[in-house]
Specification:
mainly alpha, Cytochrome Bc1 Complex, Chain D, domain 2, 3-stranded antiparallel beta sheet, 41% helix
Amino acid sequence: MKKTVLAGVVLLAMAGAARIWLWPADDPGPPALASSLDKAQLVERGAYLARAGNCMACHTVRGGAAYAGGRVLPTPFGAVVSPNITSDQQHGIGSWSRDDFWRALHNGKSKDGRLLYPAFPYTSYTRVRREDSDALYAYFQSVPAQARPNAPHGLRFPYNTQLALAAWRALYFRPGVYQGDPARSVEWNRGAYLTQGLGHCSTCHSSRTALGGTDDALTGGMIPMQGWYAPSLVSNAEAGLGKWSTAHIVQLLQTGVAPGASVAGPMAEVVRQSLQHLDGSDAQAMAVYLQALPGPAKTAPAALPAPSEAVQAQLALGAKLYQQHCASCHQADGRGAAAAAAPLAGNRALAMPSAVNAIRVVLNGGFAPGTAGNARPFGMPPFSHVLDDAEVAAVLTYVRGAWGNAGAPLSALEVNRYRNVPLE
């Protein structure tokens, strides 16, 4: 009898400990303070922050009402459908208080206490300060109500359970507002706050575990929702900006193009919908922060083995295809043509171990965003209807190994893996 009672006590204790570990109390964060802004100014400030966070990208379907939700976000665990965050009382967040909104951003919990899926990047938004959360709340309360019901997610078991989500949060999520580094400048801290918080750059630019957790290290990672590789921001061998001038970083963030570089794919959408709308001081702050990111220890690139006969034949085919389809824009020497065609010689995107972005661009085209500073961008047409998988592999193997580039050869199978058009 005593053993049974003792076992029951132990089980209860374990259950209590598990409950505390899996469902810890909310972190209240700093208290809400009265704003010095009037209502119109607060809404305007919130609208600016919503653009900085690119909230519309996930919460608006193509051709749909702004922020009415319904966009399907594919993940390795099933589909997540973005919710309606307009001021609608029934289907949106019109009945939420600013404390409810803060709870969602800071603690990743809905108004009713339900745990939110991290497709909503509260793992980054938790760093947002309370005054900015309140401004965002004021703005979304001003967004016209849209009576669009929220669709259910399409997640597989057990990922569709609150218990699994609680376990994930216990492993990968700790709420906490951004704390400035007193050893750094005000400008650097502002850039860090925007990059780590509303910008949620680590959501794409960091690798993920099998369970979807990330270390926020900005060392690069695949974007499972779109099938692109977000390159490392801390390695100058990928997309690190340590050797760039601050002015050129600002130019890239706000226009999508800079001397010898341009953005494409998901990053083009980020620039078009979000970064181009940053004011000059915030773009400058982000540039200062990105430029100062520490890089990994320098290692000599591994020497590629001498090409086999099969690779030599592939290179010969690639050289022929390049002259036929590419040289008129990118030039025979791979140096490109100013703003019209990106240089391929010494292009970091071609030398990265992951060739997925180069494959995507050849198959589906590469287009810089249309921005106020680059209103009529040049673009590269798609070649998926012109070249088969082996031909795409050949031309990319050629350019990845020409003009000082040192990328490994590609196979037709690698190309075929990405022949499908990425989801919007």
